[in-house]
Amino acid sequence: MLVAGLFPAPATPAPLVRPLAGAEVDWSAGSVTASAGAAVDIRMPSPDAARPGAERRARAAAMEKLRVALRALPVRGNGRLGEKQVDAALGHASTTRIEYQSNGGVVLWVGVKFEDLVESVSRAPVAPQGLRDGQPTPPPRALRAPLAATPFGGFGTDSPPHQPPRAARAPVATTATEPVAFAVAAMPLELAPSVVDGGKEIVVGCVRYRQGPPPAGAIRVRRDDKGRLVFPKGSEATLDALAGGPVVIYLQKVLP
Q: Which value, in Å, is the radius of gyration of the alpha carbons in the chain?
């Protein structure tokens, strides 16, 4: 089910699309996409007969590129997806675009949504970079709701214009029409950043990024020396109120 409009597009959108290991990550739309092509098999009697085989080869090549990119995708800090998590995420991959050549060749794109990646993160600890085969330390408590109830925008496209998100207040209403906006001066792009409030730490899984001025009333959070997003003192926002709801992080500067 596609629920569009839950992550409002900025008035002047700044591109937050980054190449990664031969694939492309759209941090605003929430997707990782890889493409590949396959030439016609000249042994086949016609372009129509050659096209199915070319499509299979192109998909296999694109899936391998997607696998490599998912291994490199930053989750939190130095954390990366482990092999089992990558395998689980690839199970959700779908063909997002396909071009058939007149001679029987095929070029296609495959991709996964951030929510599919977060689902795999929520089922197992994230492996620190370079320690995927070891025993990683479990991450903070995951901020998760059942995926069927998790509001996300459509895959592969940014959300259409919508009412701007309001800042979290007590209680915070994270409904299907009201994402919570964070304003951060600078941070790297991460799939599932950690958030701290009053000593409690969780992982935000429903996240998209925008670059530019935040909307009025956005929660201004700082990034501590551990890379976590910290609510300001005296904030009435509570972490549990964000469970299952979308978060839009507005950045002034993207750190490497």
A: 20
Q: Which of 146, 26, 20 is nearest to 80 (CA)?
A: 20
Stated as kind and residue range, the H or E segment containing 124 is none
- Summarised one tens digit per residue, pLDDT across range 142-200 is 433 333 333 333 333 222 333 333 333 333 333 444 678 899 999 999 998 888 887 78
Amino acid (1-letter code) at residue 255: L
Q: CB 223: neighbour CB atoms within 10 A?
A: 16
Element of type H or E holding 256: none
In this structure, the number of other CB atoms found within 10 A of the CB of residue 175 comes to 11
What is the value of pTM for the model shown? 0.72
User: How many CA atoms does the CB half-sphere of 17 hold within 13 Å?
Assistant: 13
CA dihedral 249, 254, 255, 256 (to 10 degrees): 110
Map residue 28 onto helix, strand or coil.
coil
User: CA-CA distance, 198 to 76, in Å (whole number)?
Assistant: 20
In the chain, where the domains are located: 17-139, 147-255
Alpha-helical runs (H) found in 73-208: 83-90, 114-123
Per-position DSSP letters for 158-197, written without gaps between them:
PPPP-PPPBPP-SSP---TT-PEEEEEEEEE--SS-EEEE
* Residue keyed to tokens 């020396």: 225
CA 115/CA 243 separation, integer angstroms: 14
Residue 210 makes CB contacts below 8 A (sequence gap 6+) with 10, 13, 14, 16, 28, 248, 249, 250, 251
The answer to whether the CB of 244 falls within 8 A of the CB of 205 is: no
